[in-house]
Amino acid sequence: xxxxxxxxxxxxxxxxxxxxxxxxxxxxxxxxxxxxxxxxxxxxxxxxxxxxxxxxxxxxxxxxxxxxxxxxxxxxxxxxxxxxxxxxxxxxxxxxxxxxxxxxxxxxxxxxxxxxxxxxxxxxxxxxxxxxxxxxxxxxxxxxxxxxxxxxxxxxxxxxxxxxxxxxxxxxxxxxxxxxxxxxxxxxxxxxxxxxxxxxxxxxxxxxxxxxxxxxxxxxxxxxxxxxxxxxxxxxxxxxxxxxxxxxxxxxxxxxxxxxxxxxxxxxxxxxxxxxxxxxx
Amino acid sequence: xxxxxxxxxxxxxxxxxxxxxxxxxxxxxxxxxxxxxxxxxxxxxxxxxxxxxxxxxxxxxxxxxxxxxxxxxxxxxxxxxxxxxxxxxxxxxxxxxxxxxxxxxxxxxxxxxxxxxxxxxxxxxxxxxxxxxxxxxxxxxxxxxxxxxxxxxxxxxxxxxxxxxxxxxxxxxx
Lengths: 281, 174
Description:
Distance between the termini of chain B: 26 Å
Oligomer: heterodimer
Shape of chain A: rod-shaped
Number of strands of chain A: 12
CATH topology of chain B: Arp2/3 complex 21 kDa subunit ARPC3
CATH class of the largest domain in chain A: Mainly Beta
CATH architecture of the largest domain in chain A: Beta Barrel
Strand order of the largest sheet of chain A: 1-2-5-4-3-12
């Protein structure tokens, strides 16, 4: 028992002595030198241990990296999805902004028909098939929309209101088979009716006699005719499209004129309903 | 006896080198396993206080030399660790299954505390909060995990000696 205590006591005393001397002496002292030499002796062992452990360390690092990469991957995927959504929203907002600016420019421009005011509306339902060329809009009777009101986009004529509800309305596009618009070639004065031809063949300018002059590329606008008691539902000079093709046959009294509409009916989003301004009392 | 001493010396030397070069870099949840402490505790439990104290002193010298720390600081602490754990093993702890784990948990705590106290006395940086609150529990847990294989290995290296019959009336400690 005593021997144990003596051994422990001696070792503790030596440790304390080492500690004291080491702490008191300068860095060039004997113990420091001894430690430096000892460290040099131990260095190869440490290097060897490091080399032996390196593959295990690499494996652990790889596993750790894999685990963190997985969690990072999941996190980045979530971020990516969120950013993708934000990007889509931003793109939609930019597109919407452009469309609205175009509508605003049209409304404030010189080509906007006089005697009309506009109601900006958004398309809420789209044509379900080739034979159904009607869209729903988010403005209705309560907003001032009336039956047969013309509907335009910044590019040109889109259609007319054919059904009106309190807060929504239905617009029949000029590409619908039931639609017909009196049109005019402002360059030559030739007039006719823009209507839908057979399904799949697009718009045509009908009822143009062979005597009238129409050339490919000519613009077509609404005629906006008016008689004593009747008038066209469309105001004058709303762009409809351009003449895409012109031909004629001996058996047909009218020219066959293909029309390329200005409005992209496949991507209708925002439109203006043109409402006649009431005459001021 | 000499063979045992050589074995213990080699054990703590290897453990100190591994601790300084490999295990010091291992970080698990902020904690670091102390292979040297575990190996020392295992050796002291199996070979008693004198061997424990000597092994602790030697281990301290090696680790302080390898890490260029204050020479004598680890020696002092590990000498005390080796002696106390050795005494625990000599009295009642050696044959108990939980002895290594109990010793490791307690010694890890006391070793950290003693290290902080000594450093504080010497005017060295002693981040008590970081050591006692941020990493101590992780250190204890990691040392307990390391204890199982290390103790089994040391036990294989230093098979328990047949225990001397305790004189009648001698107190059992632990």
